[in-house]
Amino acid sequence: MNKIGEALIKLFGKHRLIFWYDENQELLDQYKELSLENVKKIAVQGNEFEVKHIVVKKFPTDQFLLYFNSKKPLDEENWLLDLELANYIFQTDQEAMFLQEMGLYYHLKELVGEHLEFFKAKDRRNKLKEYIDKDDDFLTIRYKMLAVVFGTENISLPTYVHTYGSSYIDESDRYEKDLARYNLRDFFWKEIERKYKYFSEAPSIYDFLLEVFSNNFSLGKNTKLSKESRLLLSLWKDTFQFREYFGKISDKISTDIDVETKLNTSIIDDVLHDDTFKLIDLKIIHELVHLISEEDISVEKVGQIVKERENKFWYQEFESFYFCLLYASQLISLIRKYGNTKYESFNEGVSNYSNVLFEIDQTYRKFVWSYRMTNQNKILSELSEKIDKVYSNDWLMVYGNNWQKVIDKTNKWEPQNSQANFYNTYIKSSFEKQRRLFIIISDAFRYECGVEFTRRLQAENRFEATISPMVSSLPSFTKLGMASLLPHYNLKIKEGSDFVLADGMSTEGVQGRTKVLQANAGSRAIAIGAEDFMSMNSAKEGRDFVKQYDLIYIYHNRIDKAGDDKVTERKGFDAVEEEISFLMKMTRKVNAMNGKNMLITSDHGFIYQHNKIAESDFSVSNHTGELWSENRRFIIGKNLINDSATKKFNGADLGLQSGVDVLIPKSINRLRVKGSGSRFVHGGSTLQEIVIPVIKVAVKDVATTSKVEIDIIKSTDKITTNILAVSFIQNDLVTQQILPRSLRAVIVAEDGEELSDQFKFIFDKAEGSERQREVKHRFQLSSKASGKYKNQRVKLVLEEPVDNTSKWKEYKEFYYTLNISFTNDFDD
Fold first, then answer.
1. What are the DSSP calls for 547-609, one per residue?
2. What does pLDDT average to over the chain?
3. Average pLDDT of the segment spanning 148-162
4. Contact 741, 708 (CB under 8 A)
5. Which residues of 453-472 are buried (b: 16+ CB within 10 A; e: fewer)?
6. Residue 407's pLDDT band (boundaries 50, 70, 90)?
């Protein structure tokens, strides 16, 4: 069936009588060929009275197609006018056919004729039909035609600009050609002129965007565009579909308007709030590197700058750089404050390090890790060298030398909370309470790593975690540390080796440790490797395994494995990050197997320096005697005689058998041992090596965490200008149980239309007064706020992210009434 037949069938679905005027009889043959089911055809040729009798009296309910081979008569001469007005006139010109197909009124014929090429494609007609309403005016329909041309769901001029600009940067002229082909080009640029005050005799998308970016760059030229151009860029950056293209076109424009030259003479404060160009972040990072390296900026100021950049467009790309800067500043500040700390006693040192000074080693680790995440970018090389010098010379060496004075006075290794008493101190009491206990032992998981892990656990809902320090056995190496954590009466180093026996039993591997546990624990106990444990299905295999035991020791070796290898020791801090994530997964796995109580600890800590070790950090030890084992940080043997480079302990003083001697290099010095790494070391007596964590974890049946509450200071419920200043208040301080909250805020009309830029912020203040927890933002409202939505109610919507998704959910909303004067549509 042809198009005329198809159109008539649709029309007869709504009308009983259809009038068809064919003045030049061009379609007479098609009329004659037509055969429509249940429709009678009548050719009207001067017999109007007869026709009226047939359709009104004779067949009052039947459907008729009335064909005229003349033009439509004047109303006063039309004998069938009453029937015509009550029914439908079928138009057969191309414009009318399209209107009829789309179910639109005939008055739109002029619009269709003006953009006839647009309507010739059925796909475009069908797509426009999805958007269009019968009451739409010419302006609205053209806007919807643009949505079809640009292929957007959102019918808005900013979205068209984002799409057009994105296509331009992909070197496509598709939209330029389509706008011209469909006669929409003039309309598009007239709307750009009206909304953004962009005037050009030869407008182009790139010329327009040059003006938009320049106008909104803090050091750029004022091109007299309207305030709406600010919102155009803000929306572009916040639109997931076009974010990538914003970055690309921003980079091109930054070259074409020579942003770099303008930034060369600027200071951080000039551009701190601006994220129009990537070069701004490069400038801020460059300046901070030098300021921090020269110690010409406070740690508080660095924190404020990084916080300000945290929600800017380019932050994610430069996050590791900003973390580097923040950690570098914090580290220098901490070392300048605590670097020369001295102690009178062993217990004082352990207490102070575990309560306060561990943070220095933790901050250094976080700096190095962040530096590695930047691929050790050369912009940070100056700062990296500075940090390594300050950390090694002003912290490790000075602090190590001061601590060595305490060690020199220590002849018997009997610290409080000794690793050798771990079983009796932490485990025995659990069996009295009939609690199943999981012991997770992570090799070389030093105290500061444990603190970070504990904080992450505390942020997990239903996990309750506390940390306390424990002092490792000496020498602080794996074989002795692992043996000390087992239930035992005495430990002994096997003659001529560094193997450790517990009550005469081997402590090597999970088989050896299982035997010791089963012999000495007095309970159903087993040792298992972490990989084997994690490979079990939680629901069935895992739970069946767990039911058999009251005490389960789980061992993992990631940090020590990486650090002790000369090839991979530079990745020691990477291994820490991976291990913390792995332990988080393991605690969840234990919980999934009905495990409610866990202890996480380690065999020893470590010292790590990222850069090549200075010659001065190596000791030449002129020792003699029968050597059993020699390491960078300890020597085990028999009848050993040492010199001033080492501190000597006999076995009995270390809780081992008599007849064995141990030499420990002083402070942070390493012994020259062929083939072993030198950056990552352990075995000695520094606080970094001997202070290890004991983390108690309990799984609760009720929530253990919440997020900080956010409110706003609302002095009025009316919006009277295109700028709305809002103060956000973080009601609570962030603690172990009260967690930060990420929010985004935007002003929205009741029909869902966004009327302002988006504000994003992470509320994470852990100290300060309520006034210091106040954050202000000035929302820029679009012209629709004083036009289409004037005097209507709108709301400021606060949303927070849905965990582990890219979605957002509503947190709070605050209502306002728009009452913006027309004068606010004029530029300042």
1. HT-SEEEEEE-SHHHHHTSTTTGGGHHHHHHHHHHHHHHHHHHHHHTT--EEEEE-S---EE-
2. 91
3. 92
4. yes
5. bbeebbbbeebbbebebbbb
6. very high
DSSP 606-630: -EE-SSPPPGGGEE----EEEEEEE
Q: Provide the pLDDT for residue 609.
A: 94
Reported as a pLDDT band with limits 50, 70 and 90, residue 779 is confident
Cα angle: 659, vertex 660, 665; to 5 degrees: 145
Per-residue model confidence as pLDDT tens digits over 104-144 = 766 677 788 788 888 888 888 889 888 888 778 889 999 99
474 in Cβ contact with 662 (< 8 Å): yes
Segment (H or E) for 775? strand 774-780
CA pair distance 647, 323, nearest whole angstrom: 39
Entry field: residues in the chain: 828
Structure tokens at 198: 């962009």
DSSP three-state, residue 306: helix
Structure tokens at 806: 């890219």
d(CA 495, CA 499): 8
CB 214 within 8 A of CB 220: yes
The answer, yes or no, to whether residue 334 has pLDDT greater than 60, is: yes
In sequence order, which residues have a C-beta less than 8 Å from that of residue 135 and are 6 or more positions away?
none
The first and second tokens of residue 702, run together, are 């009720």
* Phi and psi torsions of 714, nearest 5°: -115, 105
Residue 671 near residue 618, CB atoms below 8 Å: yes
Q: How far apart are the first and last CA of the chain?
A: 62
- Name the residue type at position 339: G
